[in-house]
Amino acid sequence: MNIKKVLIPIDLDRDNLQIFKFAFDLKSRTGATLLFLHCFHPNLKEDDMIEEMQEIKLSKMEETILAYGEDKIDDFDEIEAIASFAVDGIIERANSEAFDLVILGYDTGAGLGTFSVGIEVIDKIDAPVLIIPDKYRYNKLHHIAFNIEFEFREIDSVYKLLVFANRFGAFLSCAHFDGKLPPVEIAKNINTYKKMFEYECEKELIEFENLHEKGTQALIDFALDFELDLICMYKTRKTWKQYFNPTNEEKLLKKLAIPVLLINR
Description:
Structural class: alpha/beta
Mean pLDDT: 84
Number of domains: 2
Largest sheet: 10 strands, mixed
CATH architecture of the largest domain: 3-Layer(aba) Sandwich
Helix content: 40-55%
CATH superfamily of the largest domain: HUPs
Order of helices and strands: EHEHEHEHEEHEHHEHEHHE
Number of helices: 10
CATH topology of the largest domain: Rossmann fold
Shape: elongated
Distance between the termini: 12 Å
């Protein structure tokens, strides 16, 4: 993944420290430019009143961000406050230019279907999305997992994620969750991937494996057993929504409290 510009919507009424930690570490490793965005809906009709509110929000954002990252933010980074509902404002801003990543905070108490930047935002923006749960506590990425389905178009994504993992010095596990495929077919697919990435496997940069099970609990068990720091999935698959539906999201994000990166094909 070539990350040059990152959009980071923030809620000034919540603790954004872990988002800041991840964002600034990402910046230090990729050289990316950060754009912090806050959406407010003052319900004011007069433009001058909106502008006044905008100045107040911008001032609070600057104070909040600089309190953590005064030595990390630079002249290329940006801070914006816009008068809009959160969902509409984030979607419009995210699609207004070519962002390489959008980082969204996730309130595990509200549920992904109802929280302010929910599924609608993820579906309607073009860029990859990194979801950071509120109970997450940032630490250096050591182990990243990518959910694979043995499709040819995955190969390019694996290469890109290898580059991303390398920037953090992290190990990449490519895991297939499926209890239905015949063992012979699974073994054949795994061996094909290992041959394609023979050098990286020998250097212990990547591994391919099948978990023999499917579903939220299988992912939880895998993440806990292998101490994952980040889970990657395709945005365009139904797979990720399976893990983030109203009944499963609590188990997944509350038990794991680790970020999920939704990438494009």
